[in-house]
Every structure is written in structure tokens, then in C-alpha cells.
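Name: TRAF-type domain-containing protein
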Amino acid sequence: MEAVSDQDTSICTHCDRAIPAANIDLHYAHCSRKLEKCKVCGDMVPRKNAEDHYLSTHAPVSCSLCSETMERDILDIHKGENCPQRIVTCQFCEFPLPAIDLAEHQEVCGNRTELCHLCNKYVRLRERFSHEARCNGIQDSSVGTSRNVREAEREQVLEEAAAATE
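Structure predicted for TRAF-type domain-containing protein:
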């Protein structure tokens, strides 16, 4: 038997598929009675399952963390990256808290100080890594206050801003 590859086809006006011309009438009768085109994605779904298809695929859903309503396909991204109530960790103390509270927490937490064991100075946690990178380990018996550190930071920022405008 030889397969006919150049068989005449017709386009079904209900589902827009190419159907062998000899079968188009029977196909159309069945297709229009049993299938429905989804108004959102255009897929042909059984007419009896059209509402279930919409609810399970396209209906807006609420985030279980913040109750914001969104399309189902972006819910996972929202929960993982954008939700203000997702749990994140403080970079200074590793305390888990909602993302919306992170900036305020880290502002306070980063201002806490710890003693540098190399130079015996108290260093803010937010400055710890840059301090460790440039710390030469010289012991200083006169431990400075954080006010002195803050004033030095201001002077450094002003110098860098002046250099940038030149």
C-alpha cells in the first residue's frame, strides 16, 4: 500500500486545523459539538471541561503569603523573588524575616559592632569585610568611637565626590 502524502485538506472553521477533505463534514460536526476554543490561550478543550481548564490554567490566583492577586504563571516567580512577605535572611546575623522588613532590620543590625581581633578596634558589621581587607593588624590601644569612624567616612565620601567632579 502506498501512502498518499498530497491528500487534499480543508481547514476546519471551528478549530482551524487542516483536516482531510473527505472527512471535513464529519470532523466539523464532531468538533463543533464537543470542543470549545479557549478564549485566553486558543487551545481546543472539551466543552464539558472548558471551565475547569480556565480555572486550573488561567484564572487569577492569590499569593498565600501577601494575598496579592496575579496570573497563575507568575505566582512562583512572585513568591521566590518579588513577594514582600517571602522569607529572606539578614546578611549580618542570618536571622530569617519577611523581605519587607529586611532593610530596616539590616540598618540596625549592620550598625552593631564587633571587635577586630587583628587591630583590636571595634568595627561595624556593615564595614567588617572592607575593614578586614585593609586591616594591617597593628594593635591600637586607643579604641576609637563610632563617631570618629562616621566622621572619617563622611570625609572620604566628600573627597571621592570632589575627585569625581574634576
